[in-house]
Design brief:
- It is a single chain.
- The protein is an alpha/beta fold and 500 residues long.
- The chain folds into two domains: 2-248 and 458-480, 3-Layer(aba) Sandwich (Aldehyde Dehydrogenase, Chain A, domain 1), CATH 3.40.605.10; 252-439, 3-Layer(aba) Sandwich (Aldehyde Dehydrogenase, Chain A, domain 2).
- The chain is built from 16 helices and 23 strands.
- The chain has helices at residues 40-59, 62-78, 80-91, 95-112, 115-118, 154-165, 180-191, 206-214, 227-239, 262-274, 292-307, 327-342, 380-383, 399-407, 422-431, 467-473, and strands at residues 2-4, 6-8, 11-13, 19-25, 30-37, 122-128, 131-139, 142-146, 169-173, 199-201, 218-224, 243-247, 252-256, 284-289, 346-349, 370-373, 390-393, 411-412, 414-418, 436-439, 455-456, 459-460, 475-483.
- The strands form six sheets. The protein has a seven-stranded mixed β-sheet, sandwiched between helices. The protein has a six-stranded mixed β-sheet with strand order 10-9-8-11-12-22, sandwiched between helices. The protein has a three-stranded mixed β-sheet with strand order 1-5-4, covered by helices on one side.
- The model has no long low-confidence stretch (mean pLDDT 97).
- Bound molecules: nicotinamide-adenine-dinucleotide.
- Nicotinamide-adenine-dinucleotide binds at residues 146-151, 155, 173, 175-176, 205-206, 209, 224-226, 229, 247-250, 281, 385, 387, 413, 454, 458.
Length: 500
C-alpha cells in the first residue's frame, strides 16, 4: 500500500497525519494507495514554510518569477501524458479528456508568465504642483487553495500560477479522492527552479481545511467545490478577515431554438452532458428545447448517440467517457435516476443497468448515459446538481419561457443558446443572469486571459479565477503621493489637503 502525503519546503513531507483513507482506481474499483489526512500541526508546518519563503519571493523581480513559471510550462508540455495518466488513474476520465485538462491549466501558466506586465502599476505626474501619484500592486503573503476532485490539475492551476506570479507563496489542499497530480505539480515546480517553500501541498480533509481557514498567516483562500462547502469556506474565511473566493456547484442549461442547427446542437449536447461522465461544473445537465417539435427532433437525434457511447477505462483510448469517481458517488447518481422515475419524469435512456464488458474492469464505477424527458422544475433531478451522466430535457414553448426557467434556478454558473438568429443570441448574452454564456458553444469556459466565475449560488466572493480578476484577487494596491520640495517651504495646513 503506497501512502500519498504532503510536499513542503521543496520536498516530500510525511508529517503526523490525523488519519488516512484509501484512494481508488475508479476504472477497476481496486485500491493500492492511501492518502494521508493532515493534522493541524502538518498544516502549520506548511504555512510556516510558505511564510519563511515569502519575503524573498515577494522581492524577486516579476521577470524572475515569470521565467520560473515559463520553465514549469515547458515541463508540463513535455510531460502532459504522464500527468494525464496520473489524473485518469484516480479520477477515471479518459486520457484525451485528462490531456485537455492539462492544456487548460497550462494556459493559465502561460498567462501568468506575463507577470511583469500584469504587475505594472499606474503613475500620474503633476496631480498637484510638483506632486506625483503612483499605484503599485503588492502580493498578499501566504495564500491557500482548496480544490475539488473533478479537475485535480486544472483547478489548482486556475489558482497558483497567478498567485505565484504576483509574488505570493501558496499552500494547496487538493481533493483527497485524487491527490497524486498535486505532487507531480509540486515536484515539477521545484525542478523549474521555484525556491523551496513558495509552493506547498497539504493532503487532507476538513481538519486541514479548517486549519487553513483559521490560520492567521493565511491571507487569502481560493476554493472550488460544491456549494454548501463553498458557502462554509466563505463564511468562516471572511469571519477570520481573509480574502475569500469560493466557487460552487452548477446546473447549466442549454437552450435550443427552433432555428438552431439541430445536428450541431445534438453533438454539442453529447459532449457537454456526457463528457467526463458529467463530472464537470460546466457540464450541460438541462436541455431546454423551445417548442415540442424541437424537443422531439432533438431526442430522436440523441437516443442513438447515447446508445453508441463508448464507456470504458482510460486504458482503452477509444472510450468516450469513463467511470464515476467513487462507488459512493456512483450510488448517489443512481439514486437520482431512481428519484427522477419516482417523481414522474420520462426515462428515455436508462444508464443504471450498464455493465462494463472489458475484462478486469467489471468492478469499476460505471453508469451509462441517461436521458430524461418531460422534466419539470419541481423535480429533484432538475433542482439539484447530480454531477453524473444524466441529461434532463425541460420543454419550453417560447424563448421567454426558457429564460424565465433559467432565472428561476439558484445556480448560475454557465449556460448556452443554440440559434442562428443574431438578435436572439445578443439578447440572451446580454440579459441572462448567468456568469458564463455560450452562443453555439456548449461549454463556454473562458480562456486563461479572461476570468472564470459564475453568479448566484455558484459563487461566494467578489472576484473570479485567473485573468485580471485573478491578479486583483492576489494583490493589494498601494497608492503613494510624492512631493520632492526643491527649496520652497510650506505653512501648516489644517483643512483637508487638496492639491492645487
Ligand atoms: P467538495 O465540496 O466535496 O470538495 C471540495 C474540497 O472541499 C475538497 O478539497 C474537500 O476536501 C473539501 N471539503 C469537503 N467537505 C468539506 C468540509 N465539510 N469542510 C471543509 N472542507 C471540505 O466538492 P467535490 O465533490 O470534490 O467537487 C465537485 C463539486 O465541485 C461540484 O459541486 C462541482 O460543481 C464543483 N465545481 C465547481 C467548479 C466551478 O468552477 N464553479 C469547478 C469544478 C468543480
Amino acid at each position: 500500500m503506497t501512502l500519498i502525503s504532503h510536499y513542503v519546503a521543496g520536498e516530500h513531507f510525511a508529517g503526523n497525519p490525523a488519519g488516512q483513507q484509501p484512494v481508488f482506481d475508479p476504472a477497476t474499483g481496486a485500491t493500492d494507495k492511501e492518502v494521508a489526512l493532515a493534522s493541524v500541526g502538518d498544516v502549520n508546518h506548511a504555512v510556516a514554510a510558505a511564510k519563511a519563503a515569502w519575503p524573498a519571493w515577494a522581492k524577486a523581480s516579476p521577470l524572475k518569477r515569470a521565467r520560473i513559471l515559463d520553465r514549469f510550462k515547458m515541463i508540463l508540455w513535455d510531460r502532459a501524458d504522464q500527468l494525464a495518466a496520473v489524473i485518469s488513474s484516480e479520477h477515471g476520465k479518459t486520457h484525451d479528456d485528462a490531456l485537455g485538462e492539462v492544456t487548460r491549466g497550462l494556459e493559465v501558466v502561460e498567462f501568468a508568465t506575463a507577470a511583469p506586465t500584469l504587475m505594472k502599476g499606474e503613475f500620474s505626474e503633476n496631480v498637484g504642483t510638483g506632486v506625483d501619484s503612483q499605484m503599485i500592486r503588492q502580493p498578499l503573503g501566504v495564500v491557500a487553495g482548496i480544490t475539488p476532485f473533478n479537475f485535480p490539475a486544472m483547478v489548482p492551476m486556475w489558482m497558483f500560477p497567478v498567485a505565484l506570479a504576483t509574488g505570493n507563496c501558496f499552500v494547496l489542499k487538493p481533493s483527497e479522492r485524487d491527490p497524486s497530480a498535486s505532487l507531480l505539480l509540486a515536484e515539477w515546480l521545484t525542478e523549474a527552479g521555484l525556491p523551496h517553500g513558495v509552493f506547498n501541498v497539504i493532503q487532507g480533509d476538513k481538519i486541514a481545511v479548517d486549519a487553513l481557514l483559521d490560520h492567521p498567516d493565511v491571507k487569502a483562500i481560493s476554493f472550488v467545490g460544491s456549494t454548501p462547502i463553498a458557502e462554509y469556506i466563505h463564511t468562516r474565511g471572511c469571519a477570520n478577515h481573509k480574502r475569500v473566493l469560493a466557487l460552487g456547484g452548477a446546473k447549466n442549461h442549454m437552450v435550443i431554438m427552433p432555428d438552431a442547427d439541430l445536428d450541431m446542437a445534438a453533438n454539442a449536447l453529447m459532449g457537454a452532458a456526457y463528457g467526463s461522465a458529467g463530472e464537470r461544473c460546466m457540464a450541460i445537465s438541462v436541455a431546454v428545447p423551445v417548442t415540442d417539435a424541437v424537443a422531439d427532433a432533438l431526442i430522436e437525434r440523441l437516443v442513438p448517440k447515447i446508445a453508441a457511447l463508448k464507456i470504458g477505462p482510460a486504458a482503452d483510448r477509444s472510450s468516450d467517457m469513463g467511470p464515476l469517481v467513487t462507488a459512493q458517488h456512483r450510488d448517489k447518481v443512481v439514486s437520482y435516476i431512481d428519484a427522477g422515475v419516482r417523481e414522474g419524469a420520462e426515462l428515455v435512456v436508462d444508464g443504471r443497468g450498464f455493465r462494463q464488458p472489458m475484462q478486469g474492469y467489471e468492478n469499476g464505477y460505471y453508469v451509462g448515459g441517461t436521458l430524461f424527458d418531460h422534466v419539470t422544475p419541481d423535480m429533484s433531478i432538475y433542482r439539484d446538481e447530480i454531477f453524473g451522466p444524466v441529461l434532463s430535457v425541460v420543454r419550453r414553448k417560447t424563448y421567454q419561457d426558457a429564460v424565465d426557467l433559467i432565472h428561476g434556478h439558484h445556480y448560475a454558473n454557465g449556460t448556452a443558446i443554440f440559434t442562428r438568429d443574431g438578435d436572439t443570441a445578443r439578447a440572451f448574452a446580454q440579459d441572462i443572469e448567468v456568469g458564463m454564456v455560450g452562443v453555439n458553444v456548449p461549454i463556454p469556459v473562458p480562456m486563461a486571459f479572461h476570468s472564470f466565475g459564475g453568479w448566484k449560488d455558484s459563487v461566494f466572493g467578489d472576484h473570479a479565477m485567473h485573468g485580471m480578476e485573478g491578479v486583483r484577487f492576489n494583490t493589494r494596491i498601494k497608492t503613494t503621493t510624492l512631493r520632492w520640495p526643491h527649496g520652497q517651504r510650506s505653512d501648516p495646513q489644517f483643512t483637508m489637503p487638496t492639491l492645487g
